[in-house]
Amino acid sequence: INLIPLRSPIARVLSSRHLLRQIQPPVHQRQPTPRLFTQNSALLLIARTLPRPELPFLHDTPAARPLQPIARVQFRYQLARLLTTERKRYWKHELKNTVKYIIYIGFMIGLINVCIAGIFHEKLERAHPTPPEWSFWSRHMLRSCIGLEDPNVESSGLVNWAKIDSIYRRLLKRLEDPSKDGKGLLPIDKDNKGQADRPEVAQAGLDLSSTSEPWRRGYHAALMRAARTAEHLDGWVTDTTMKLSFPKEVVIGPSNPKPRPVPYGAAEAPREENCIPSAPPPETFYLKILTSVGFSTRQRLDAALAYADWLDFKGLSTTAEEMYDWGLDIAMGALPQGINNVVDTSTGIIGNEAKFVSANLLDATNALAVHHARNGNLAIALPIFLSELRARRNLSIPVIDDPALSLGNHQPSAVGGFFTWVKSVVISPPYPPAPATGDEAPIRTQTA
User: What is the C-alpha separation between 210 and 205, in angstroms, rounded?
Assistant: First the structure.
């Protein structure tokens, strides 16, 4: 018995109305919208975008907003296509590495420059020792000035004397400041008779009695070098607006009606109302040495002779002769007591019966004779030269019993020499001892 009911074959034949209703698409069915892979998904937006292409000429832009150029819109879309997520991550990584390598390389270059500067200053310190009592910056300034005086330091081959003068003046200001490196310095009392050889000269120096000998030696070297720098800057002015130094011949102003043109490529000529002297006169530093209390006879004599030579160079022969006489008085004032009639002060001739002649006295008489010879006074210069020669011939000759024993026969081995060199590189040498004051009699060599 077949329990499944039989279906009517008529039900399989669909009517045309039913067939049309199934073939027609639903009225509310939505077309799939295109999704651009270069933009965020439209499903995240509240309002769905239209399926039409996003072209500038098809957009309905409001009247209040200006229409953007086509090139800018195209550039924005092209940039969006190029800067994908993977490319953004890549460029961020590369930029981070680039910045990191630039910092590393800059740090290494800075360390190399510091090492080069350290080696340079160490060589200067060994060639020109600075007082260990000075602060780091004072010693650094003195070494820098000494190094800048070398023409090979600058690429142009010229010495920047204006820069050196500025550093020297800052250094002297630090050394004379009691709160920095000038501890113990005192102004000279009006009743002080320490410089009684020229009481008419204004006291421009300081009382250095409380300082050590290395401190005074370094201070004297700074003053002498500053005076020589001022000599090089004589006739130069500094423009306060441009911070540059020029010779007086190129300054535009009433005192120079016909200024010399500046060289090609140089800065414009300065105006007189904007200019000041590039450096103080050299006598400012020389007189500070001559009037200070605490310098040795040799140090004061060097300052007097250098100042007299500068006056000779400037054509002031009368003033220069007075300075040479001052130097002669300085040398004679340091002679031992009871030594008289050594030099005739009116002529500068050393007496025939002179029992004691110091090295300073010989240098002072020699400089005076050169001054007279330079100015054409040969009749005065020749007797001074002859008396100096006679005094040098009368000096005693040291007696050496055995030159071989005095020099020593011990020669260090190669290993010992190597360790000595390593020690000299690692450990700085001590500050050299004080030189001779020049108040003692010089020693005549066997070849003199």
Answer: 14
Nearest to 225 by CA among 172, 158, 298, 304: 172
- Asked if 19 and 61 touch (Cβ cutoff 8 Å), the reply is no
Alpha-carbon distance of 63 to 79, in angstroms, equals 27
Buried b (16+ CB within 10 A) or exposed e, 429-445: eeeeeeeeebbeebeee
Structure tokens of 380? Answer: 């005065």
Global pTM value: 0.74
User: Which residues, other chains included, contact 212 with Cβ-Cβ below 8 Å and sequence gap of 6+?
Assistant: 131, 133
* Separation CA 366–CA 364 (nearest Å): 5
- State the maximum Cα–Cα separation within the chain, in Å, rounded to a whole number: 174
How long, in residues, is the chain? 448
Asked whether 222 and 176 are in contact (CB, 8 A), the reply is no
> pLDDT digits over 143-188, tens only?
999 999 988 877 777 899 999 999 999 999 999 999 999 888 888 7
Residue 25, pLDDT score: 56
CB atoms inside a 10 Å sphere around CB 240: 12
Asked whether the beta carbons of 396 and 366 are under 8 A apart, the reply is no
State both tokens at 273. 């109302």
